[in-house]
Amino acid sequence: MKSLLALGLIAAAFVISSAQSFDSAKVFRAKPHNEKQVNIMKYLASILQFNFWYPDSEMHIVDQMEVDFHVSADQSNIVQTLMEKNKIQYEVLFPNLQEVIEKQVRKETNSTSRHSYTKYNEWHKVGKESGRRKAIFMDCGIHAREWISPAFCQWFLKEATRTYGKDKNMTNILDKMNFYILPVFNIDGYIWSWTQNRLWRKSRSNTSSSDCVGVDLNRNFDLAWSTVDSSKNPCKETYCGSFAESEPETKAVTTFIRNHLSSIKAYLTMHSYSQMLLFPYGYTYEETPDHNELNEVAKEAVKAISSLYSKEYKYGSSAITIYPSSGCSEDWAYSQGIKYSFAFELRDKGKYGFLLPESQIKPTCQEIVLAVKSIANYVLNQAL
């Protein structure tokens, strides 16, 4: 029997245009150098509308950490003045967020064009491209039907088709393993990011009495749910939902995985950004029983990444390497007995952040394919 590699792809949402304008909004990178400056930044975040890019909330800010966040035009001068007054080191990554968005993806060149592996695509193109493959439908989302396709990622599928029978290693992997991909985990949020809010990150459900919409789906899995780095406040970016697996998207993924546990050997999930390869645990600093082995697998995968374009990825357990978080999919998958559970944080390290240029899509995919091949080969060797 072929082993099964389940690839959960939690994609960053990319937008052509948005009803919400980010005109003159700024993206800052600040670096507090002592506890006083850390506390000042946390205070500013609590009274002003900081939208964190990295880390995901003020609670994770520590001295010497580079903190990326964006603020609206009417608050940017206040933030800048207060940081200067308190001698907090900072730089402006994007002086006008809207200009960057409009330059990156223009509607007039994208609305009628076909799906492209080197561009950010609207959902109808992603869905159509996925539908060209043999697919399993999942009821998922409040407005959409979700896809799981027995492939890898779309770029990998294209490359695998081209190299099957020519690349001995690739041929061996595809002969012995099945790959399942979830191209877009959060369809409703993805569509919203193209039509209403470029930087939308949550789902679009409203399961609370609040007017605030959406759940952070990667805080909604049923392991240590709502214990670390998650919020019970529906208006927060890290809102974990009303209960574990409350969201149809989460439930669809967990149901699929539970139904295939006997053959699933590995789980990979793709995020952005910060160039890291993480493994459990995320909700605690304690090491898993498989920590040393997972660390070695990650080390070799990161080495494979750097062999192509010399990009450096940090690796290690999630809580230690990035920051603690709970209710995350890779921790949950590991708890189900899927030992080789990894989360990729893709390019870059913050120069572009969530606005990675399309020119970096192909090289990012190429280097990550090498990492996944490394992991897949290891899993195959262990299964033999």
Could you please describe the fold and organization of this structure?
This protein has 384 residues and is α/β, with parallel strands linked by helices. It folds into 2 domains: 3-16 and 106-383, Aminopeptidase, CATH 3.40.630; 26-95, 2-Layer Sandwich (Alpha-Beta Plaits). Helices cover 36% and strands 17% of the residues. It is built from 13 helices and 12 strands. Strand 10 (276-279), helix 10 (291-309) and strand 11 form a beta-alpha-beta unit. The longest helix is centred in the C-terminal third of the chain and has 23 residues, at 361-383. The chain is globular, with a radius of gyration of 20 Å.
CATH superfamily of the largest domain: Zn peptidases
Number of strands: 12
Overall residue-averaged pLDDT value:
86
Low-confidence residue ranges: 3-18, 134-156
What does the overall shape look like?
A: globular
CATH architecture of the largest domain: 3-Layer(aba) Sandwich
Quaternary state of this entry equals single chain
Please bin the fraction of helical residues. Answer: 25-40%
Going across the major beta sheet, what is the strand order? Answer: 8-1-9-12-10-11
Measured between the Cα atoms of the first and last residue, the distance is 12 Å
The main pleated sheet reads as: 6 strands, mixed
